Amino acid sequence: MQMRNTFENARAAAIWITAALGLSAGMVEAQKPPLLPEKDVAALANELSGETAKRNLEVIATFHRQRGSRGFHSAAELVAERARAYGLIDVQILEFPADGKIFYGTQRSRPAWDAEVGELDEIVPGDIDDCLKGLSKAHAIGECGSFKPVRIGSYAAEPVVLAEDSESADLTADLVDVGEGTKESDYKWKDVKGRIVLVSASPGAAQELAVAKFGAAGLVSYAQNQKNAWWGEDENVIRWGHLEAFSEHKTFAFMVSLKTARGMRERLAHGEKITLHAVVKAGQHAGNYEVVTAVIPGADPKLKDEEIAFSCHLDHQRPGANDNASGCMTILEVARTLQKLIAEGKLARPARTIRFIWPPEIEGTLALLNGKPEFAKRIKAVVHMDMVGGGPVTKAVFHVTRGPMSLPSFVHDVAWAFADWLNDQSYRFAAGLRSEYPMVAPEGGKEPLRAEYSAYTMGSDHDVYQDSSFGIPAIYMNDWPDRYIHTNFDTAANIDTTKLKRAAFIGAASGYWLALEKTHQDLLRLALFETPGRSRRTELQVIKRLSFPSDEQNEITWNWSIYERAVQNSTQSWFGEKLDLEIGAHVAGKAAGDGLLKFQRKTDPKGPLAVFGYDYFADHAKAAGVATPKLLSYEGLWGGGEEYAYEVLNFADGKRNTQEIRDAVSAEYGPVPLEMVVEYLKALEKIGLVLEVK
After folding, report:
1. Which helix (H) or strand (E) holds 19?
2. Distance CA 58, CA 312 (A)
3. Which residue ranges make up each domain of the chain?
4. CB 660 within 8 A of CB 596
């Protein structure tokens, strides 16, 4: 209790000091860097190099880094070599078998996939006269023929053209346009058996109908990028495509640009015949998830077994510069910088150990935390970077994303304190005002950072850490939108070294501060610099409150107040004290009927249910004969079915009843019917993930 009283006294003192001086927290923090001594901030600002990060990025972006592939292994070896050269210790490439059968928590391991050849040609009438010159007529009949190939796509030149999980083939067949390719009506009156189908959907989404039901031999897809303002604008972009990793109906698929597809569709619509020749040498095989790790050891005998982790995801198609060579090479730059400054005595060695992790996205993190549970026990917090270098041409907006409401933590406010301060410093520099720390790289841009403090969004490894089965708060730094994500245009040329340096600073400063042993003065400074995060959340909550029916507004406000109280008290767990909040007491009288039911998540399996290339819920629900719950397709005001489902399971702690869970997720993502929450929890019970608490 002493630490709680100390923290509350520090917070009260900070608020009093701010009020007495007539200053806002924003004005105070604009004058001096937050949390860390200015000498530490200066050391980081001077040493961190966006150029060094980009030079490493340019090399990594030459590898086609699919899970378990030779390209991924080459990238992992390069990261490990650099980490050793920078002086980090315990550098390892951990291996976790991946064969399609082994599970790591909720992740069914996907077999490794490699490709050697992927060539797609159109066979068009050729000029036989040129071939005939100099040949006898008899010889020419055997050598010339009357057709020639015109290359459409080549894996060797541009690996993105071959969809991941394609299987070997050598086939000549006509092309048939089936539109989207995901509905049976798309195939009506069209004979696609033995032919190649042209689809606008992702190859995996059309695979079962096209191949299994209607007998197509392969696919050509012109699927477009994730929806944003620039969707479909550049018709030369080729998107990274995927087939279903666990489909029984193996096939191949090629990806083409919108421009190429439009030409094909127009010709087919006019009755022209298009004949394609596909040659593929590729396929799945038993392999390993490889996870690179390295550490900077802590100094405190009592705290060095606790770890602050830096995470990214190393896998992606070539080039995959922003997604996610940028995040991986930025944490490598953080590792280089911290190790160098600590070795030189410019930074004190932190009490806790700092660990760096380079896995395949989501599935590698699940393999690590489930296959090596000691990692999950040691990690206190994570700084996760997934796309942090997009320059102006990418249209990227940089986010410092807080965690889900199911896991309140001061950790996210630490990151925002540094980001908010750097926003001010970089803007002042861009506006021609005095700025001590603009963090501008020599080869980079001079634009202000304009980082956004964003509500929790899903889609990367931070989902795994912050899942209730692990409960590790994660700072998530990411770019969105990015007009070239998952395409052949995600190149190193679009990466801004100033952006890399600034992301590295926010991450390095946050992770280093969290790794230090805390003093009373640290708590005082934290109480002061938490204010921008609380203020930003409060502003948003006031606006959101108006979206709820009047009879729910007080209940929703109460849920937000409980969350804020939990954020403030979350430091207790870092000092060995139990966080004690009377969750749900306020609404005990409101619940009735099914709203009184309580469910508790089982300890195994660990991990979120919607993972990568495998849906744990869908697979097990099908086996148990459970219908798809309506919640999974529900669209709320600020979130969709996946987000609601993620948080409903996270909130299922055996203490909250279903009414309280419904109110909590409504406060986070918008109103949702109680019956949908109940239906989903009962479905989870049927597949053995939760137990009803009597």
Report:
1. helix 2-21
2. 17
3. 49-109+287-428+454-516, 113-284, 546-692
4. no
Run of H or E including 413: helix 411-430
Give the DSSP H or E segment for 218. strand 218-221
Largest CA distance in the chain: 102
User: 496-523 burial, b for 16+ CB within 10 Å, e for fewer?
Assistant: bbbbbbbbbbbbbbbbbbbbbebeeebb
User: Looking at this protein, which amino acid is placed at residue 421?
Assistant: W
Architecture, CATH, for domain 113-284: 3-Layer(bba) Sandwich (3.50)
Give percent of the chain above pLDDT 70: 90
And the tokens for 175?
């092309």
Is the predicted pLDDT of residue 140 greater than 50, yes or no?
A: no
Does the pLDDT at position 268 exceed 70?
yes
pLDDT at 482: 96
273: CB partners within 8 A, 6+ apart: 174
Distance CA 209, CA 202 (A): 12
Q: Rounded to an integer, what distance in angstroms lies between the CA atom of residue 277 and that of residue 509?
A: 54
441 pLDDT tier (thresholds 50, 70, 90): very high
One-letter amino acid at 12 equals A
Mean pLDDT, the chain, whole residue set: 91
Q: What gap in Å lies between CA 189 and CA 180, rounded to an integer?
A: 15
State the burial class of residue 177 (Cβ atoms within 10 Å of its Cβ: 0-12, 13-18, 19+). Answer: buried
| Helix 497-515 with 327-343: angle, nearest 10 deg | 60
Identical topology for domains 49-109+287-428+454-516 and 113-284: no
The predicted-structure confidence for 177-228, as pLDDT tens digits, reads as follows: 999 999 999 999 999 999 999 999 999 999 999 999 999 999 999 999 888 9
Beta strands 690-692 and 474-479: pairing type?
unpaired
Give the helix ranges, DSSP H, for 489-545: 497-515, 520-529, 531-545
Q: What is the CA radius of gyration of the chain?
A: 27
Pick the CATH number of 49-109+287-428+454-516 from 3.40.630.10, 3.30.300.30, 3.40.50.261, 3.30.2350.10: 3.40.630.10
Provide the pLDDT confidence category of residue 4 given band limits of 50, 70 and 90: very low
